[in-house]
Amino acid sequence: xxxxxxxxxxxxxxxxxxxxxxxxxxxxxxxxxNQGDVNVVCNGAMQIQSLTIKEELIQEGDKEKIQDLVTTAxxxxxxxxxxxxxxxxxxxxxxxxxxxxx
Length: 102
Prior knowledge:
Helix content: 55-70%
Low-confidence stretches: none
Oligomer: single chain
Order of helices and strands: HEEEHH
Shape: rod-shaped
């Protein structure tokens, strides 16, 4: 196998990974904490799409509890998104770690 062939394969893989990355960005992930008191949805680009807090929780007025639940929910949804991305990329690359954020 010559260097030209390797370069072509690398370029092909890079393009395929870019397509996968774009598809991942459109996925949605959700996390719910404390029996539905707080719900968070993010996309594969790690952007929070929505955050809902039950009215009853707000009316309780426990600011620290709300902050803790929101933090927990956001961290949970981001972990889901990152885990899914890592799994998809691992399958796409055959487990080979690639530079440049892929």
